[in-house]
Structures
1.
Amino acid sequence: MVAIDPDKSSERAFHAAIKAFKPETDRLYLVAITSNWDYLNTEKNAARLELYKYESWCEANGTKYRSIQTEASDISGEYVSIIARKKVDVFYIGSSSFHNCADEDNLLFNAFSSIRRFFAGSVASNISSQLATTGSGASVTTVRLVD
């Protein structure tokens, strides 16, 4: 399963997942979750475009995938829920995924996102800690932009 986000580290996470993907035994989930606080829909639209980019790559390369796009107030919690429902073994996420807003002019959403990240930490670290407490057995592979 790969977290889809416009961040460059997410692109590296996608390619790391593709490198490890075994089509005869694995399922590839492309998952884009956006905040339901995005009242201008800029994050949702950016996520749709990014998801389409990876779907197109999979189709062009003959890679079978399933895509999921949804919104939630707790993005980390929603990822953990999907991981449990789909019985995901390995989850790939970019280290700086969900750090930037699609529309920097949306000051209210940008400020809320920054404050939330400051107090709650990154989405990647939250997912790792939530999975550790649920005992799902899924591992999280956090891919940095630069190794």
Note: The CA atoms of residues 39 and 138 lie 33 Å apart.
2.
Amino acid sequence: MHGKRQISDFIQKQNASFGLLKTADTIRRIKAELTRAFSSGFGQLSSVQTVITLILIYHTTSIGEILNFSPPEIASFRVALVGSFLLVIFIAILSVLLFLDDAKGAMLAALAFAAINTLLTVVTLYSFQSWQGFGFVVASGAALLIAVFRVKLRLTRLDFQAGFSSK
């Protein structure tokens, strides 16, 4: 719920910012405000998600016993928790890419996730059970890195894009 408020606040700030006169100083202020909004929102999201993930990892053995998991299944569950952590952050950054009008970047990151996850899942299915789930973690991490790179690239080019969008 808190993440939705952060995204809503960001949208309101973005709409207000782009309604201003697009001078170099205004664009620098907009860029600074967007960067602060991203940092604040993702700082809060990642800290909450980290705490929840760590609590679940700590209690994985107890949860596994309740659900009658075998030791390898408990290990796979821990791996899936790490992958889920990365995926939550990745999905949040995908929404930022869409807010920044970078559908191409969002699609690139999503396709990278799908391709890497599929390839590594197929490979690990035919290996030891202890490797299962690592494809998901690697795919989530790689897609997250691509998405973060695209957000940074989009913010770097904000002054250039805003200068031409007013014409």
Note: Residues 2-165 form one domain.
3.
Amino acid sequence: MVGDTLSTNQVTSPMEKKPTPFALNATEWWVKPLAMLEHNWAVIDEKSQLVTVYFFHDGGTTKNPSGFTFRSKDSERYIAIVDSLSFQSFSQAQLALVDNGFRKVAETDDFFTARQPTGTAFDARQTEPGIYSKQGYWIPQIVS
């Protein structure tokens, strides 16, 4: 669940390297259907004056190796933050998500609710290509 954290960064064998939990202050998932059974996911995180949208792939996976090793049961407990964008306000972040094809999961059918990433977030942005922040798939808002 968004905002879940682990109490320790426990390593159970010398070959395993677990990610450090990334605390999120977000409660609502957003989804963007990309293709048949392929989606991008987002949450809006608001801490003090900083508003950040964090992005996830289906299942909370990464496209590139994250540098962490997981046992099969562990991989279901971690979700990878693969990109992020900062905004001036919560409402600006919401409008930008809508302008870029995202919808609130709570306003969709149960299909998306059952598929949203769950688990403890970890930061994988350094190994991911930055689909929105660097690759040009984000349409900036036009300010009039």
Note: The beta strands are 29-35, 38-47, 50-57, 78-81, 83-87, 103-104, 120-123.
4.
Amino acid sequence: MPGAEAKIEAPAAGDPLLDLLDGSVADVVGKLTSVSALGLDQLEAAEKDGKTRKGVLTGLTEERLRRASFQPTAEQIAELQQMSEEKLQEMEDGATADGYLRAIAAIAAERARRAAEGDNA
């Protein structure tokens, strides 16, 4: 059906991602920054199928919101300006995989600046 969202499945038994949910709420939430966007979805599905801890579900939502609201600092922009195109591409690939849309926007802005200035560091 067009427009229908695919149901995200919990990780398979034995998946190391699933082991994260064995920890306390604080442990789980503390490790969410290192989990990919798909991993966050999978953890949410697994948590809803299991313990349904409000603190874990809230932590997942807060991590998604944190990623969506990323705004680069002046220092981060300066670092982007010093990166080679290869390093920018590597960073963009990682940001895409992890769902960091604001980071991708910052990279796109840096590429636009370089194009406007004829600078392809």
Note: Residues 16-68 form one domain.
